[in-house]
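DATA SHEET
Item: assembly model
Revision: 1
Owner: S.N.
Input lines:
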Amino acid sequence: MKARTRQIAIERTTLVVILALYMIPVLWLVSTAYKPPREIFSSPPSFSFSPTLFNFERIFQLFDVWQLLKSSIVMSLGTTVLSLLLGVPAGYALARSKSRYAIVVAYFFLAIRTVPIIATLIPFYLMMRDIGLLGTWWAVILINTTLNCAFVTWMMFSYFRALPRDMEEAALTDGCTLWGAFYRVALPTVVPGIIASALFCIMFSWNDFLTPMFLTNSDTKPLSVALLASFGTKDITWGTLGALAHFSTVPIVLMALFLNRYFVQGLTKGVH
Amino acid sequence: MATTSVGSIDFPQRKASGLRFTDRRKLFLVALALPAVVYVVLVALWPLAQGIWYSFFDYNLLRGGGRRTFVGLANYAELWTDSTARRALINTFAFTFAAVALEFIFGLCLALLLWRESRFNRICLAFLLIPVTITPVVVGLIFRALLAVDYGFFGYYLAEWGISGPRGFLASTTSALPVVILIDVWEWTPLVALILLAGLKSLPGDILEAASADGATALQRFRLVVLPLLLPTVFLALVLRVMDAFRVFDIIFVTTGGGPGDATNSLMVYGVKQGLQFFNIGFASAIGNVTILCIALLCAVFTLLIRRADVRANEQ
C-alpha cells in the first residue's frame, strides 16, 4: 500500500509540474493586461506590478471592441447554424441508408475535412470578389461552413450509426411519418452529439484566423484578425494586446470548461 | 415517445403517394443528404477544381492585367527549383514529423498519468482543455512575447545567460524552427492526451485485471496488452495531428512570419503569401495542390503502417 501511495504522489507532482508549464504562459498573458505599459517593458522583466485597468480603457479607445466581438459572434454562430442545418440531416441519412454508396459519401465528407484551406481559399477569394461578397461576413460563413458541415456530417453519422434502428422502425409501423421518425424519434436521442458538434463548430470558427484575414475588411473583421492587425502599430503594447486577448479567449475557454464532457465526447466520436 | 398511433390517418396518404414505402424512404434519405452534398460540391469541390485548373497557368493579378497564359507543369517545376519553395516543403515535413512525434510521446505519458480515476485528475483534465481552446493566434503571440529578448519572461534570461543568441531564439535561423515546433507541441499535446485517454478509459477492464493477476509487470502490461488494444486510438490521434500539423499556419505566421529568411517557412505560409499577398494565383494554386497531395500521401502511409502493426499485434 505504501508503494501505491508513493506512486500516486509522484504522479501528482509530475502533473502539477506539467500544469504549471501550461498555466505560466496563460497567466502571464492575463497579467500583462493589468500591468501599466512601463512595467511590461521593464528590462529585466519585473514580477511585481501595480494592477491597473488602463489597458482595458486603451483598447476601447483604439478599437471598436463591440464591433469586433459582434463580427466574431455573427460569423461563428452563422457557420455553426448553417453547418448543423446541413450536416445533421445528412449524417442521419447516411447512417440510415442501406445503399452501398452511403459509406462512400460519408468518406467523401471526411476527406473534405482534410483539405488544406489554402487550396480552396484562393479560388474562393476570386469567386467572392466577382460576386461582390468579399469583405462581408457571408464570405467567411460560406467557406467555413464547407469544412464544418463536413465535420458535423461525419460526427453525426457516427452518432446515428451507433443508435439502434428499432425505435424508428416501431414509430414508422405505428404510422409516424418519415420526417417524424427522424425529427421526433431519432433526433432527441443524439442531442449530446449535436451539442458536441456545435461546440466544435463554434470553436473552429471563433479561433479561425486565416480565412477572415483575407475575406473580411476593417469593418467586418473578427477579434482574431484584429489581434494581429493591431500588432505592429506603435500604439499597441503587449498590455493592450493581453486585454484584447481576454475578449477572444475567455468566452471559448469558459464554454469548453463548462461543457467539457461534450468536448471530450466530440473528440473521440467526431474525428474517426 | 411522442408518436401516438395515428396510423389510421396516415395510412391512406401513404397509398395515395403512389410509391412503395421503401422507395419513399430512399427518396426521403436522399432529400436529407442532398443539401449538404450539393453545398460541399459547390463551395469546396468547385473552388478545388478551379485551383487545379489555375495551377497550369501563369496567372498573376498584379501583372499583365491578370491575363492567364498556359504554362503546363511549370508552376510545379518551380516548386522544386525555387529554393524558398523547396525549403518550405522540407520545413513542413520536418515540422510535421517532429511535432507529431513529440506530441505523441508526451501525450501518451500525460494520458497514462491521468488514467487513474480521481477528482484530482479530473481537475487537471479540465485545465488541460485551455491550451486546446485558446485562439492559436493568441498562443503564438504569448510565446512571441515570452521569448522577446528585451522584456520577455523567458527570452530576457535566455539571452542574458547566453543560452539563446543576443537576438533570441525566434530570430536565429538555427533555433527558430525547433522553437516553433515546441510551441506547437505545447498547444496540441493535451489534445493528443485527451484522445488517448478516452481510448484508455474505453479499454475492457477485465483484460487489464487478468494481465496484472498473471503477474505481468507494468511495462509488459503496457506493451503486450494496452498498446495493441489502443492502436486504433493511436492511429486516430496521429492522423488527426499529422493532417493539422501539415497545414500549420497561425503559429508560424504570428511568431516568425516564416522567417528569419526561410527558416520557418511552411507550405501554407508560403502559399498564402504567394496567393493572397502577391496574387501569384497560378503558383499559389500549385502549392495548395501539392499540400493536398502530401496530406493524402501521409494519410495513406499511416493507414498502411497501422494496418501492418495491427496484423502483427493480432499474430502475437
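QC remark: Chain A touches chain B through 101 residues (CB under 8 Å).
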